[in-house]
Design brief:
- It is a single chain.
- The chain is mainly α.
- It has one domain.
- Helix content is 69%, strand content 0%.
Length: 172
């Protein structure tokens, strides 16, 4: 990716997070029965959980759009998408198939049941893998380059053998 596509990726991710947070806030104000149920993994009611998640999504969305530091933006999106993925994995392991992530808004869309959730799970995986890749490019490759850069000549030591060949210490 180049800086232009990186900016597009973060702006798209921020806009999507903002839209999903608005959907969560809209749904949390409703009267659906699922809002009275407690999440089996986090042991919180779905209504406060949706409000809390929407607040975190808004904060991350604003950070993604406003920040100029790509490494910090990658870390923020990696953290959030990782949490989404682990939450879905934990619920799957517990046998919970209910995910009111977007609330009753998905019921009003002309989509097959479960398609919106599948799209957002795929999107979370895409955010996770892409931000991990970008983090590797921005930060990781520089760190590996430092590790494998030629060793500097050591200062004069008492051993003439080490002065003759800087890598001699590795052969001792």
């Amino acid at each position: 990716m180049n800086p232009k596509s990186d900016k597009w990726f973060f702006n798209f991710s921020g806009a999507t997070l903002l839209l999903t947070s608005l959907a969560k806030l809209y749904s949390s104000a409703g009267h659906a029965k699922v809002l009275a149920v407690q999440d089996q993994l986090l042991h919180l009611g779905y209504r406060p959980l949706m409000i809390l998640t929407a607040g975190v999504e808004v904060a991350v969305a604003v950070f993604l759009v406003k920040s100029a530091n790509d490494v910090k933006r990658c870390l923020a999106l990696l953290w959030l998408s990782g949490n989404f993925l682990f939450d879905h994995l934990g619920n799957d392991l517990l046998g919970v198939r209910l995910c009111p992530c977007l609330g009753q808004l998905t019921d009003r869309l002309p989509l097959p049941k479960g398609l919106a959730e599948l799209v957002f799970q795929f999107l979370a995986l895409y955010w996770f893998l892409t931000s991990l890749n970008m983090l590797w490019r921005e930060w990781g490759s520089a760190q590996w380059a430092l590790l494998f850069s030629p060793m500097k000549k050591p200062s004069r030591t008492l051993s003439p053998r080490l002065n003759a060949c800087p890598h001699a210490a590795l052969r001792l």
